[in-house]
Amino acid sequence: MSEKRFEICPTTELTPGERRIENLGGFSVGVFNVGGEYYAMKNDCPHQRAPLCEGKLTGTNTSDTPGEYNWERDGQIVTCPWHGWEFDVTTGESVFNPHRVKAKTFEATVEEAEDTKMASGGSSCGDCGAHLEGSEPPVETYDVEVEHGTVVVYL
Amino acid sequence: MVEDNQVQTVNPGHSTEMMLLDADIHQRWADDKAIVQYLPERYKDDGIVAPELLYRNPGGFLKQDEVSEGGGKPGSDTQKIVEDHLDKHDIDYGMFTGNSWFNLGALPNRDYANELARAYNEWLIDECLSVDERFLGSMYIAPKAPKKGAELIREYGSHPQIRQVMLPGGAEVPYGRPQYWPLYEAAEEMNLAIAIHPFSEGHGTSNPPTGAGHPNSYIEWHTLLGTYYMGQLTSMVTEGVFVEYPDLRLALIEGGYGWLPHFMWRLDKNWKGLRSQVPWLEKKPSHYIRKNVWFASQPIEEPEEPEQHNQILDMMHADEILIFASDYPHWDGDDPMWGLPPMEDEMERAVMYENAMELWDLPADPTDLN
């Protein structure tokens, strides 16, 4: 497949716990640094198309028994700013229904800086549109890779 | 042709060929002495002192054609219940739910309420269940004394006809709170259902019967019973009662069911965004309702178009969780033959007996109860 390459920023400008939201070829994408790893997720909630990546970046609770809480996945859960649905930015999977409700993610990586212009990718992405499917459509996630120097996302 | 015509006249009502369980039959004592005789000495002089419903019904609360021969209140002669209700309608099992004026949940004193519950259970076994093997019993506990209530469940719950533990709809705090869990643990252990039936709402120490406060008239009180049930059910589901006690079976009696589609949809919808507050729920909240909770039909919903009733049944998964109840001999009861509108045979079988057989884990033949 023909992926479009987008340089986001120097790694020094996206440190652990931070995120950026960029327009990549016409699509709004959130790029996250979670503990030194980079992830990219479409800024588009599959529920009602809210700007998902603008939500609170936090963790979530699990439980072994009623009344007891375990705090997990700190810093890798984004809660949708509209209705609070939780998504794991490292996979795009929702917490409440990870197999059926997902956000689109992209490949994100760090690469040696190139001289190409930032966000210079093409204008089309065949797999980037929102596909609302019934009441629980999947959310798309994207691959993000990082090489030393520059955070790069492939759409 | 004559036979055909007879079949035609019966057809719209319930078929007597089908088994029939009634989930809500109210028996009562003719005289308070029937209960007081079982009270410990420290309370015998007090008799029965329980908060009364202060709302009035201009037509009375009881079917006036069921007054017993001696002039006793309807429901006070169990033999009359056998003849006028079980035999008349060919009912296979009838669940005694007791006296709705016995507002144990609204009493301030835990020990007194617990002893009244014990006395009721003695009376239930000695003078009610013994009358006919088709009768089933709902034993009482005092909600403010859950540990003692659990002891009562283990003491009386092994009686073969006792199949559930009754909680009043009205309470001080919602039923999902862990303070009540000893009751659920004991009920699950004894293979008894927990039932909630309207009483104690807004009386004595209970909360107001609506979130809006104390209503002005009985029409308000009666119409809004379902909202109290919503509070209890939300509490029990979200606090994880059915996670902790996965085999617990809950019956919500006389709180309605037309609200259930809305309720399940809204609870599931909210859970998607608020799940992290209740992470012990392994499935969406409606899963636990469909698996662990049953709803009694009376007072039946009466939509503008009869077909809309069938739509409600579909939306609430009535084939899994709705059970027939008459509420005999109360004023708003549903007749076993004519109370429910025509349904598909499969749905009718589920509602009229199959679902209740599962709820109370009953053998097909009452003589096999042991």
From TrEMBL, chain A:
Keywords: 2Fe-2S, Iron, Iron-sulfur, Metal-binding
Upper taxonomic lineage: Archaea, Methanobacteriati, Methanobacteriota, Stenosarchaea group, Halobacteria
Name listed for the protein in its UniProt record: Ferredoxin
Domain called Rieske: residue spans: 6-117
Record carries keyword Heme: no
Top-level taxonomic group: Archaea
Organism in which the protein naturally occurs: Haloferax marisrubri
A Pfam short name: Rieske
Xref: InterPro entries: Rieske_2Fe-2S, Rieske_2Fe-2S_sf
Residue ranges the record marks as coiled coil: none
GO molecular function terms attached to this record: 2 iron, 2 sulfur cluster binding; metal ion binding
Signal peptide: none
